[in-house]
Write a structure and sequence with these properties.
This protein has 247 residues and is an alpha+beta fold. The protein has eight helices and seven strands. α2 crosses α4 and α6 packs across α7.
Length: 247
């Protein structure tokens, strides 16, 4: 069996030729294996995380694919169109801070990303925790980002590069988490209807994306239904039922 055949057999409940070896090397091992600072992977896409992961799978000769979900926006979500990432602060040791800016509305994201050389970026960081203003007075554009295919062209590119070294999954296209921190819990107690609206919008988005996935000629080997912590953070999906099935 190839590595892909072996993992697909397990997912079907069949007996493979041997026990698959697919340790969760996540992002730390692939990024360190490149020998580059982590911001090269996460900011400058040189290489992107998916490429670093595939290279690591081949390097260690493991059955891979389960952690391969860093595709970007496959379905052209309009909500992402006007957002661009900008550098808003640099430190003497080379680390830096980025913040997202909406070119259509002029709004800055509520949180920032803190990029270091030896770890994945710290996300969801309030600017004030780093001594930065919520709205930066100066910023610089991110240049030198390596170009790769996008959307479904990227999906097909990754499928070819992974080949028979593992299985390739696909996200449903929306988070299952309505809460991302204590601030959201406080907000829910004051205005629960906002979260009910957000829930319905997420369900519409997932349903639309699932229809697109079902129509693909080159379908994924499996689907991601959420992310780590989903079972903890999704209490407001519990009353929803799929209208076309018994789920």
């Amino acid at each position: 069996m190839t590595k892909r055949e072996r993992l697909k057999a397990v997912m079907r409940g069949e007996v493979p030729d041997c026990v698959p070896v697919c340790p969760d090397i996540s992002n730390m091992v692939p990024c360190r294996l490149t020998g580059k600072p982590f911001w090269d992977i996460y900011v400058y896409q040189n290489p992107p995380l998916w490429k670093a992961y595939i290279d690591a799978v081949k390097h260690f000769d493991i059955d891979g694919g389960f952690e391969l979900y860093d595709f970007g926006d496959l379905f052209g979500d309009p909500a992402h169109e006007h957002w661009e990432r900008r550098i808003v602060h640099r430190n003497p040791n080379g680390s830096f801070v980025t913040q997202d800016f909406n070119t259509a509305t002029g709004d800055w994201s509520r949180d920032v990303l803190f990029h270091t050389a030896d770890n994945p970026p710290a996300s969801g960081v309030p600017p004030e925790k780093l001594g930065l203003p919520a709205v930066p007075s100066t910023w610089e554009a991110i240049t030198g980002v390596r170009e790769w295919p996008s959307g479904m062209a990227l999906w097909k590119h990754i499928r070819r590069e992974l080949g028979e070294h593992g299985v390739l999954g696909m996200l449903s296209g929306a988070t299952t988490c309505l809460f991302s921190g204590p601030e959201d819990i406080y907000e829910y107690t004051e205005a629960p209807e906002r979260f009910h609206e957000r829930r319905e919008e997420l369900l519409r988005k997932v349903s639309a994306n699932m229809e697109k996935i079902a129509e693909l000629e080159d379908r994924p080997d499996f689907l991601f239904c959420g992310a780590s912590g989903s079972l903890v953070w999704q209490p407001f999906f519990e009353n929803w039922r799929c209208p076309s099935c018994s789920m």
